[in-house]
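ok trying again, last paste got cut off:
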Amino acid sequence: LQWTSTLKNWLKAAERAASEVLFFTGARRRDVEKQERLPPDGRQQHAPKRRRIELRKLNELCTGCLEGLSKQEACARFGKELDDRLKDPFHNRFPGARGEAYLDLVLRLHDVVLMLEQERNPVLMVLDPALVRVLLAYFDGSPVEEMPFLHVPSEQIIELQRDEAGFSIQRIDLSSSSVAPLRCSVSRVNIHNHDQPVC
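nice, full thing came through this time. structure:
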């Protein structure tokens, strides 16, 4: 993650406007590292305004047997499964006992959505792109079949604000980079940049 002055300014404004800012993260070590890379809390250490809430439900999408494999290894060993998954990523899981599909994420994030709807303080979430797609689809009212293909830039603040209709969405760019998806060809092991994300 490349934190910029834009993110620092956003955090300062949120901390000035609210009694506290909640920071929701997953429970893995890499999630803790994301918090450590945030700009420091704007207040004194004895009275911090930023409170971290660790939720396993916010762990990144489980890629099953692909965990720890390079893109080349994943395509070589599971090329057909990955191409099948691209056809219906909402229902088709990654190969392996713990592999997940977007439907699994929807079920996993149900309680998190309820928490977000009830929370009145600002909430900062640094999440895996797949989880961002699920939350965006819910709050934006996107059809579930479009959910796996929503564009999620990797360096962007997506701000949800309450309004009369429910929630409005504002996007604040931090850089021009975006998530590079993976697509495998069954006939020849290859990696292509493609508009359809696997993860």
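cool. The longest strand covers residues 156-163. Helices lie at 5-17, 29-36, 71-87, 102-108, 110-118, 129-140.
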